[in-house]
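Let us practice reading a record.
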Amino acid sequence: MSTAILWLRRDLRLADHPALSAACARHERVLPVYIHAPQEDGAWAPGAASRWWLHHSLASLDAAWRRLGGELHLRRGESLAMLLDVLERSGATAVYWSRLYEPATLERDRLAKAALRERGIEAHSFPGATWCEPWQLATKQGDPYRVFTPFWRNLRTQLEASVPLPAPSTLRTARLTGGLTLKALALLPRIDWDAGLREAWRPGEAGAHEQLEVFTDDAVAGYVEARDLPARHGTSRLSPHLHFGEITPQQILHALFSMDRRRTPKESPDREAFLRELGWREFAQHLLYHFPHATEGAFNPRFAHFPWAPADEALLRRWREGRTGIPLVDAGMRELWHTGWMHNRVRMVVASFLTKNLRQHWLEGARWFWDTLVDADLANNTLGWQWVAGCGADAAPYFRVFNPVSQAQKFDVQGNYLRRWLPELADAPLAQLHEPWRDAGLLARSGYPAPLVDLAASRQDALAAYQRSRAG
């Protein structure tokens, strides 16, 4: 009986899984293998929140495989060496996997495929994380897109709400001794800081579809307005599930069209607005594939020598801990620490504050998000931080500085988001809640800190630095 290895990475699901479907169709038995190899991710090995999610997602997937009569085979080490050992011990003749597009993993997978084929092993990679492969969309001149809107127009015409691949109803799975236990991968924190994550999330394929059902039932209608309100659950919260491949964009697309089958895009503004947001995720993957240098350096070469302020650990610590004295910034950073997630509009505000008002390098923020977000994704993280900092593809102009006060007044009108995450200001009158530094007595009573910087003056300093860099 021929056996195939399914090399799992960030495709932790059974349904709509092209690599799994192909392996089942071509071989009598399938052996699912997960190899933990963080060293192969280069400078962007998974952070603490990502490892927490990975542990629980693997546990969920293992339970799903066991219901089908199999189990995950877990290893830790260099991927190719582990694959070769499993191939020898299992007698498997083929390896199947889903593609990833980060620079380090692309090179790792290219070398692995070549090495396996040199040894006479079938090696097959498949899509599964995006609607289109990054090399399938190009401008009329054949170049990669650098601007989102024309990219989205092209991609949107190609989307079809076809039925996703089903999960296998039965599997003839192979078993192999010598693997590790999930606990032995040591993914969970040694210190119990993850209670908020456990409260907020249900990692795994079932959790992903449960979250999609909640979104399609309760939140997608009204998405255009509700997505900007951090106090409401107006967004999908599917980003970590997408990152770990517990659900696919095609499954989401099919679900949205199934509930709104007879309406055209113009008649479905909420659906289309959400699909456009998924289009930004796709655009991020496109950029990462074509411009891999952007994970460490400015996409826009004009910012290669921008005069960022020297890294200031005291400022950075107060920003990370949500003690800047700017309520919307602090609320967002505390939400991040407690839940491993932050509302997207608030992400833009805290990133703008760090890169413009504090003039700290965007990489300082990107690395903190990378460690603390359950949905930390290299493509999205890079695109988001460079967009706000003004140095990325299709970026907001550098002179666009988010004002945390006006943003809170506009999108958290009653202050519900601020009161939830800033308990020391929970009883403050609304006017003082948005600008507590205007009431010295409130600061003294509450213990809330005075602002790190003056918003107006620091904005002017940032714009002056920008003008000097352009002149130079």
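A brief commentary: Residues 269-290 form the longest helix (22 residues).
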